[in-house]
Design brief:
The structure is a homodimer of 246-residue chains. With 246 residues, chain A is of the alpha+beta class. The first copy, chain A, folds into two domains: 29-165, Nucleoside Triphosphate Pyrophosphohydrolase (Alpha-Beta Complex); 177-239, Orthogonal Bundle (Arc Repressor Mutant, subunit A). The first copy, chain A, is built from eight helices and ten strands. Chain A has helices at 4-10, 12-23, 73-85, 125-130, 148-165, 179-190, 196-206, 231-239; strands at residues 27-39, 44-50, 60-61, 63-66, 91-98, 109-117, 133-137, 177-178, 209-216, 224-229. At the A-B interface, helix 1, helix 2, strand 1 and strand 5 of A face helix 1, helix 2, strand 1 and strand 5 of B. Strand 1 (27-39) of chain A pairs antiparallel with strand 1 (27-39) of chain B. The first copy, chain A, binds a DNA duplex (27 and 27 nucleotides) through residues 178-180, 195-198, 200-202, 217, 219-225, 245.
Chain lengths: 246, 246
DNA sequence: TCAAAAGTGTTCACCGTACACCCATGG
DNA sequence: CCATGGGTGTACGGTGAACACTTTTGA
């Protein structure tokens, strides 16, 4: 092993350059906040937690955490989601990185927002209780802390866009679902009424659904056919970039 | 000026950190990398710099820098762009945040990528020379350091998508331009040939161009009319979300 | 007079959209 | 037998896509 001085001396050129770039740079706290969408067959919902510490104690907030060292952002988002909801293997997508100076009054924090789609029915209620968590319709969600309202707006807008590029929404529905449910989901996301017949024919043209020989008898006397999606064709569709205009 | 040994000694802590694998418990280095698109009436280009320090010395790289404390990401991106090109007041958009553990071998660094659109002709060549910078066609760009190739792919794909939602491209053209130039720009971005007549009628339907009483005589004997864009109508279009299918 | 780029309309196929009636069943 | 939600087809208009010839003028 060389003595320190010699080592430093031999590397002096690189060291100086690195000092100018890497070491002189400031490090910051990197947070990850998750917008968790769910669907209850009626409204599009988000899962919020009530903060039990200052500042903003008692206010509603997105679910968040900090990026750990040696952790990739996607993993951090997954970890946070799992921590609050018990869910894993969930559709998540990075949304945007927010960096306003005073967005977090406690300390300068940059936040990378993710959004996730989960099925409300599968959700273990123990978790929600543990964390003072609660589902809210996006139409009457409370005011959120920091810039979380802004994040939510971004997320909704991204989700709307996603409906046109991916057969999203299956993430939000149970394994078996009716056409009606699917339509209501899209209506909730886009917040507009859709025509029943047009909707069905467009969805069918995607060719990713399997009509089951089974009916859901809860919603009507006649009963409505249940569908499930064809996983193979679904994956295929994720690859080519189609456009779906609803 | 301190003697070298003293300088090295005083910085030994940082130096050792830099030389070893880095891990800071909570805070991380946040880089900003810029994909700078330009257009030279023929190809879509990107501006790259040749690194003059290790690691990856001599390789081509995107323009980057680190986020400063008390600086917003957008400002950092603008600062970096200005630093390398002398441009300010440029269209920039945040792209995505990259966080692979080993994306930067020197130290754990999270990078927020931005892309910018500038007009090659306005570009001050002094800057490019100072920084060993060079324009490359996106079709024959060299291999880039770290995950910059991946960033570039993302940027191109975002840019393509943008053509359908914003009247982009005026950022990339000179004040006055011909229909032909505009078409070539879109062709370069989408990397496909477009039909002259269809293109013109679609662009005209946007109603954001002003046809000038002036011809560009350089490209042909007959000369072609110059256009400029109607700033007011252009701003208007940015607000409502139109869709342009080319 | 000719080469080289500019400029200009029409037709067709497909898709998005609007729209209304019968069906099956449980109570 | 009737109320309730489920299921189905068609017609029209608009838009994207394909396509070719004339004009201008400098060399």
């Amino acid at each position: 092993m060389k003595p320190l001085w010699k080592f430093l001396y031999l590397h002096r050129k690189n060291l100086f350059k690195m000092l100018n770039t890497y070491s002189s740079a400031d490090k910051v706290l990197l947070a990850v906040d998750c917008i968790i969408f769910g669907f209850d067959n009626e409204d599009l919902k988000i899962l919020l937690v009530k903060r039990d510490f200052e500042p903003e104690k008692g206010k509603w907030s997105l679910m968040g955490g900090f990026l750990k060292k040696d952790e990739v952002l996607n993993d951090a988002a997954t970890r946070i989601l799992d921590h609050y909801t018990g869910f894993n293997d969930i559709y998540m997508e990075q949304l945007y990185t927010f960096s306003e100076i005073d967005r977090d009054p406690v300390e300068r924090t940059i936040s990378v927002a993710y959004y996730a789609l989960i099925n409300v029915k599968n959700h273990n209620e123990d978790f929600t209780e543990n964390f003072n968590a609660q589902w809210f319709s996006i139409t009457d969600a409370p005011k959120l802390i920091f810039d979380h309202d802004n994040m939510l707006r971004h997320a909704i807008s991204r989700l709307r866009y996603r409906t046109s590029t991916k057969p999203i929404g299956f993430e939000l529905l149970p394994e078996k679902f009716t056409m009606r449910q699917l339509q209501k989901l899209y209506e909730a996301i886009l917040s507009k009424k859709l025509d029943k017949r047009n909707f069905i024919s467009k969805i069918n043209s995607l060719d990713i659904l399997i009509k089951l020989n089974e009916k859901d008898m809860l919603s009507s006397r006649k009963g409505s056919y249940l569908y499930t999606f064809d996983k193979d064709k679904y994956e295929e569709k994720l690859l080519d970039n189609f456009v779906l205009n609803l």
